[in-house]
Amino acid sequence: MLRFSLAVMALVAATALASAQDASSGIKRTPLQKIDFPDNYTTVTGLAEIAPGVSAGRHTHPGIETGYVLEGETVLSIDGQPDITMKAGDSYTIPAGVPHDAKAVGEKPVKVLGIYVIERGKPLASPAK
Questions:
Q1: Is the pLDDT of residue 23 over 80?
Q2: 39-83 tens-digit pLDDT
Q3: 112 bridge partner residues
Q4: The pLDDT of residue 1
Q5: The three-state (H, E, C) secondary structure of the chain, written as one string
């Protein structure tokens, strides 16, 4: 129980730091859930809010990303594919390791529910070249 409590406290502290750093850039990330499943992977569910005109920045994940646009509109750029304009109700999948970016377009922020199934022990995201 103590190990679980310490893990939760560490996640909350990391989340607070990440949210503070992101807020100044026009991006707010809210982790919702993190579980070690399936074997050798961690599944992370989170909410991302991107201010109008702001880009998330090109990055990759060490596993698959799938998501659902809750509000607003975004242009999703995935290397090797044409840009996709997405609005509330649209969903997407990004293969592991593929560089991508998302930019909020329109008058209001875009809110996206993201689910990441990543290799256990690796960072959730890394900047892409």
A1: no
A2: 999 999 999 999 999 999 999 999 999 999 999 999 999 999 999
A3: 48, 69
A4: 44
A5: CHHHHHHHHHHHHHHHHHHHHHHCCCEEEEEEEEECCCCCEEEEEEEEEECCCCECCCEECCEEEEEEEEECEEEEEECCCCCEEEECCCEEEECCCCCEEEEEECCCCEEEEEEEEEECCCCCCEECC
CA contacts within 13 A on the Cβ side of 123: 6
Q: How far apart are alpha carbons 52 and 72 in whole angstroms?
A: 9
| Tokens linked to 63 | 């596993």
Residue 100, Cβ density class (10 Å: 0-12 exposed, 13-18 middle, ≥19 buried): buried
Mean pLDDT, all residues of the chain: 87
Provide the residue range defining the domain that includes 49.
2-127
Number of domains within the chain: 1
Question: Which CATH number fits the domain that encloses residue 77?
Answer: 2.60.120.10
